[in-house]
Amino acid sequence: PRIGVCYFPEHWPRERWKTDVDQMVDAGIDVVRMGEFSWGRIEPERGAFDFEWLDTAVSLFDDAGIDVVLCTPTATPPKWLIDDHPEILQAEPDGTAREFGSRRHYCFNSPVYREETERIVRAMAERYADADAVVGWQTDNEYGCHDTIRCYCSDCATAFREWCREEYGTVDELNEAWGTAFWSQQHASFAELDPPGHTVTDHHPSRRLAYARFASESVADYNRFQTELLRESNDEWFVTHNFMGHFETLDAFEVGEDLDFATWDSYPTGFAQFREPSAVTDNRLRAGDPDQVSFNHDLYRGPAGFWVMEQQPGDVNWPPRCPQPGEGAMRLWAHQAVAHGANVVSYFRWRRCRQGQEQYHAGLRKHDGSADRGYDDAARAAGEFDALGDLDPVDPDVAVCVSYDDLWALSDHPHAPEFEYLRLVDSFYRALRARGHQVDVVEPDADLDGYAAVVAPTLHLADESLAARFEAYAAGGGHLLVGPRTGYKLPDNRIQPDLAPGPFADLVGGHVDQHETLPESLPTRLTYRGDEYDFRTWAEWLTPDAARATGEYTAGAAAGRPAVLERSVDAGSVAYCGVWPSEELADALVTDVLDRAGVSSTDRLPETVRVARRDGRVWVLNFGSGPLTVDVPADATWYVGGASIPGYGVGVVDADVSDISIQ
Amino acid sequence: PRIGVCYFPEHWPRERWKTDVDQMVDAGIDVVRMGEFSWGRIEPERGAFDFEWLDTAVSLFDDAGIDVVLCTPTATPPKWLIDDHPEILQAEPDGTAREFGSRRHYCFNSPVYREETERIVRAMAERYADADAVVGWQTDNEYGCHDTIRCYCSDCATAFREWCREEYGTVDELNEAWGTAFWSQQHASFAELDPPGHTVTDHHPSRRLAYARFASESVADYNRFQTELLRESNDEWFVTHNFMGHFETLDAFEVGEDLDFATWDSYPTGFAQFREPSAVTDNRLRAGDPDQVSFNHDLYRGPAGFWVMEQQPGDVNWPPRCPQPGEGAMRLWAHQAVAHGANVVSYFRWRRCRQGQEQYHAGLRKHDGSADRGYDDAARAAGEFDALGDLDPVDPDVAVCVSYDDLWALSDHPHAPEFEYLRLVDSFYRALRARGHQVDVVEPDADLDGYAAVVAPTLHLADESLAARFEAYAAGGGHLLVGPRTGYKLPDNRIQPDLAPGPFADLVGGHVDQHETLPESLPTRLTYRGDEYDFRTWAEWLTPDAARATGEYTAGAAAGRPAVLERSVDAGSVAYCGVWPSEELADALVTDVLDRAGVSSTDRLPETVRVARRDGRVWVLNFGSGPLTVDVPADATWYVGGASIPGYGVGVVDADVSDISIQ
Amino acid sequence: PRIGVCYFPEHWPRERWKTDVDQMVDAGIDVVRMGEFSWGRIEPERGAFDFEWLDTAVSLFDDAGIDVVLCTPTATPPKWLIDDHPEILQAEPDGTAREFGSRRHYCFNSPVYREETERIVRAMAERYADADAVVGWQTDNEYGCHDTIRCYCSDCATAFREWCREEYGTVDELNEAWGTAFWSQQHASFAELDPPGHTVTDHHPSRRLAYARFASESVADYNRFQTELLRESNDEWFVTHNFMGHFETLDAFEVGEDLDFATWDSYPTGFAQFREPSAVTDNRLRAGDPDQVSFNHDLYRGPAGFWVMEQQPGDVNWPPRCPQPGEGAMRLWAHQAVAHGANVVSYFRWRRCRQGQEQYHAGLRKHDGSADRGYDDAARAAGEFDALGDLDPVDPDVAVCVSYDDLWALSDHPHAPEFEYLRLVDSFYRALRARGHQVDVVEPDADLDGYAAVVAPTLHLADESLAARFEAYAAGGGHLLVGPRTGYKLPDNRIQPDLAPGPFADLVGGHVDQHETLPESLPTRLTYRGDEYDFRTWAEWLTPDAARATGEYTAGAAAGRPAVLERSVDAGSVAYCGVWPSEELADALVTDVLDRAGVSSTDRLPETVRVARRDGRVWVLNFGSGPLTVDVPADATWYVGGASIPGYGVGVVDADVSDISIQ
Ligand SMILES: [Mg+2]
Ligand SMILES: [Mg+2]
Ligand SMILES: [Mg+2]
Ligand SMILES: [Zn+2]
Ligand SMILES: [Zn+2]
Ligand SMILES: [Zn+2]
């Protein structure tokens, strides 16, 4: 694994650049990213390109042996371009333009912007096609940041109509698939279809889901256009994009198909603040919530691994408040990423910025050039990564299924304000990580063959073919744990003709008699295999058929009714959980499915301790302020650290997860 | 009383319809409502009417002996119509269009939409003028749902100017009545008058009240237009409309004048969630708040009774959360409605819907056609209603005065965010219901002669002629209880020339020296007839004249000043309460006024138990999960149930309210 | 000092006016303000002026010996004028017009409105140029009320471009000063500059600060235009404006330069409600928060003193809730103003208004003409003021520095939602007042020579010349206390090239190593001179150089690092506090700096008791409901009241602050 950094030469005097590069070399930095917001510097007026400054910067890195990743600067079209073509701007549902003055002010479906994109991307790609230091490209920057995946402009209206025509062929087909007879929402022609604008109450859920898919695919299409332009100039370059954490409106699986590998931007202490107050603990404010971060590592990891393209370097500027990270946390995060399969961890940014919207964001160096708190952490991690050398990919026994379509469908009809799809996934994912398991995050239609167990927090939108895949998996000896709201709807967001779980009813061995959402004031209790547990938010009253009930409600209107079902399926098994489980219940459910799968779990780890296995080594990661003591087999070797791990520290040891114990 | 159901044949395959009708017959259903959102199905393109499907459905019901209520489908003009005439759309105060994509996207003042309305209503009315099964019509559906009474489009601007001209004659008269000298808000001509658009602070309260009246009258006028069209085709049809619960922006009394009787849509567990958290009890989440529901029964009941056009059939889709109702609650609600005078209770809907915005809303049957939880409840109620036979109207001794004008005036100047008119009414209404009284909800200018006592929670807007009516009522032996903020303003929302209660000062026998609104942190205590009570939000410092003070503040800046006045008026009496009373104080006040009126009250009932008398029978309604035991005279007959009433159960007995006691 | 009142003859029948004037005379009222919203009455249609009514009113006051202050009526242009020129209206960032229907619906940069202003102001000024009773003018009314300083219309766009050209000369200079290379925000010409419209995330902070300055200067320029018009007609008139309390978007220092003196509008119990709930005590709801009010007295006081142009007369209509003030509070506030240097205290308004948006606002008389609660208070104060006679100005030993530019810069980048500039100032100001000090509120570049000590809660935007002024002050024997976030940024809102406090580093004798913002859940503790204290929100990790650390963090990530620095500077001293201090810490810091300056402090006063010295007399002001006992030297004379001061009462005694003690 290697260490990188993000650098903005255009923000600093040219005479300083050499010093910066020298300091990067001193820290052991191997990779630098540049250029993602530089359009205004490269092309100050139409057609008047100025690449000399960037040539100079690239050549300084070339001299220093540092790899360069360049970015297409399309996230920030300059003012002159917007003034030439204001129709490029995105629009709100009520038609208000999203104006110039921040960033991401262009529509992915603008034909004019496609032309402008082609101009700037070709100019940059051709300029650096033969530059040895330039090893690859990042397209644009953080697609969709500030809620910009979904645009409602007239270019989008045109594109949406075309998208619907391609999706459905005839408008009658669309009317049938959506069920537009409801509230006289029939469309007589594709030309009648509009983006979902300002209405007095909810839009039709099928139209909303279609628009969510359309918008996400529009971005994927725009990104594909950029990747093709870049590869035309040099087909040895890798092309990637930097995704965001817990981002909901863009299907990262789909965009990922056009990339060599994915990268993402990781800000642990910022993310940790966007939770309910009781979850914002002191330790999470100082070192992040490990599972919140690792979920994204696992989500964006592909066959070729992944990068953290932007790693938090110290305090940041954008969360509600900005405490200083714990001492050493910047090194801890780098190790955490590598333990989950990262090949490069690239800090954002080299220096604190003196101007613009990101003032108050730390770098590895302060704005006066002196070392910031993260600099030593980064240098230390760089040395340790050199010593670890190249590592094999991670190799999980268990997969968690995630579907953006399910996320969008449930976001539109959550049935309780607190029913958030990614929080439901989190409940199962966290339980697995607390038991020491590496996890692959996969789409429901992924190849599940290699996994001993599969956890599907929900499989909300479903058809017969999806159910058949899971049936085959279980029949082939796989062990399944499936969560609530599964099989409720057809892929077009219309309720199944049969009772839930619809096409999964045979596999699950039962069906849903009723469901309810419950405020906190109502009792939410059940027994599972004889023990009492709590659950939250959602309850299904189940009727078993081939399955047996392993859980039963003990309170409320549901008292006495089954809540959890389980059955054997040939060599495999399936458990169906009709509620959103509490932490304790999720732990019991995932432990049981892994037991059935023959995979052993660790003792349940405290929330500030996580272990992760990669390439025969185990990372012991301490997200707490107090020290840990780790017992390992006598012959185990510590590659990094040792048996005593300080607060916010890390150790790497050649042992198996099941052979170590932690106090 | 009879049982009905709402049905959407256009959502289901035609081959299923006969089965549905058969199941309705099995359940004892007498009435079906259809068609309220069917414009897109009836007229898929302009002028191309397709009634064949509806003919078939009507004829199936005719064969089954089920009465049909048809609806004009004007709540959902189809997309082709909006594309032809986008000027039909409503507009927000800032001019943003309220677009197609949900429902209620038309302006009541659009001349174009009047033409379109005439086209579709005539087509439907003429089609079914001779259909025996069609017994009446519902106009449109839930006027104003999703806050659509008040539109701010240019058609409304034109109509508002005309309304003002008719209301005031000359613009000088308007300027004087409103007091536009304040902040230079004089109008030089009616042409200068606009809807209240986007301003940096409050609009003039008289202009706001005028717009509220104008908007409500616009809807009444539009509804009248529909009723006339329908009656032109068949003058034996009844015409009704389905109002909503606790709905604030439409004057239901005024619309009601053009209907044969009113109906409304009752969702007890949904309504119960829109209260302060402490009021959202477990029992209310399972069976609703009985007084919240009964108030609407009493509000919409007229000389010809009323219907519940949409009765909650199980769990619903639109409140914050959707717990399952308690076992039996769907039957309980049907009985509650009948006890308050309903002639038909019609469940919404027959089957759970597979598509569109109301997915997740229960029906009497599930979406796969099997029985949903409400089906047996409905069938049981149907049988019991058949056994009860036709019932006389309810006949209350006491009336509560409610005025939409007062509501609108106080909503605009609440003087404390928690001062909500309907909550103030609720405080008095609830006290009456807890003492076993049937209540008529009437306008302040209604004929009060028949009532032993009248409770006016406030008579905020007032003139001399209104005061004279109440003086005559008391002088004639009536007993009045009048609440705070009475007589503050003239009907045009300008302060009275004299101190409050203005024209009521003589009747009340005193005046208001000062008023204040109080946050929860300040003390709110008084004594009334020697006992201590709490109050909330609003306090008037009263000065008695002919009256004597029966209540006095004991804390805060008001300590020692009178808070409640009382005086005899010839054969009658009047009590004036200068505060928003606590539950205990409201109980004392209403008990006292009824005592003076010679009407006996029951013991104070727990909040989960209510009794209601109709046609010589008493309904004992249990809104709690635990059982009740009812003591009745030895010779009393139980028509429904018996002395032991289970949780969410009901009994009907031929006794007087004062003869029964409940444990 | 004198007593005044605000009067609206246009709201009342002409036959009443004489009675009103007689009652004013009875109360001892010396000054009346009129006309500020009267355009619609003066000019009911274009060019048709009607001054006869105002002539009559002025002449009635002339006869009664009451001075008249007239107002230009420009805050409320009439509807006919807006219909003639809708381009006068302000606009929201997204372009939505701020429409007619309330007030303040004109743009300060509208050339058309300048012409209209000139027309009406000239007409009024010429009409009354020779009226003896008219002693001066108030321009407009409460500039910026309802958030109207910043407009985003096309006239403002034009004016902003011109402002930028004048400020920066060339667009390259602007690009450099702002740092527009960030996110490609370079401007190629001034014509490209727009007001900050609707964007998907933050605008550039330098552009935002520029717009804040531009908007404030636009108002100052508009006000200057009015003052010049008025002085052209009669150069003996004084010209003033009535500012608002704790108002953030207008630089009152700058506007003040064009006025003879400032006035402001004081509503103590209203202001007190806009605080965190724990600060909204019963006493503050009844008598206001004394320091919140006095800060504004001190802010608006200039060499010629100040007036309270609108003094709360009783209950008001606009805060969340409106309790009645404590008995006597209306007199207490008048004395408080005079103790802080007021020459006139003018109550708003004479009578409760029967129409328009301010119904429910008390006057000195009720709407029926009888005495309201404040009438006797006002009359009593008037008598006491006559007895006190003319008073010398207040003469503080200590100044607090306040900068609107700092306020705007920090509002845009607070770095924690609770970091509010004026609350930070309040923390230091309150500590000084609790120790009996009179305080001047001055701009950072004011002449500091006369002050023994200066407290700068922050000096956020800074350059070398500002630092040099403070260095000279300390070198000359001055004693400084400087708060956090000082010297972070250059005046154009770009981070300093050096570490904070940038140009102040030499004076302070150290620099900021790191900073952090802290949620309430994280520990915020430090020791200062051996005692433990709490702080809030903001922490700087300091590195001393020439200074010594007098405070050190004892918890959190900062534990062990310096938090407060202090050093001697020739004859003077400087203390630098890197945190937002708790009340106790602020008390310790201000007490210490005043000790060093040789100024003695009183015992720390309870929050409901304040003392203030003016012209040899001390006002003892009781903002609590309970009585106080005051010990004074035996020979001291009580001018008002005596040693026993009742709740909400006041005493004035000829003693020194240090000679009295209060129980
Ligand atoms: Mg390396
Ligand atoms: Mg029947
Ligand atoms: Mg005087
Ligand atoms: Zn678009
Ligand atoms: Zn309209
Ligand atoms: Zn403007």
Describe the structure.
3 copies of one chain form a homotrimer. Chain A is α/β, with parallel strands linked by helices. Chain A folds into 3 domains: 2-149 and 219-388, TIM Barrel; 398-596, Class I glutamine amidotransferase (GATase) domain (Rossmann fold), CATH 3.40.50.880; 609-662, Golgi alpha-mannosidase II (Immunoglobulin-like, Sandwich). Helix content of chain A is 31%, strand content 21%. In chain A, a hairpin with a 2-residue loop joins strand 23 (609-614) and strand 24. In chain A, helix 8 runs antiparallel to helix 15 (404-412) and helix 16 packs across helix 19. The model of chain A has no long low-confidence stretch (mean pLDDT 97). Bound molecules: magnesium ion (3 copies) and zinc ion (3 copies). One magnesium ion (MG) binds next to strand 1 and helix 14 of chain C. One zinc ion (ZN) binds next to helix 6 of chain C.
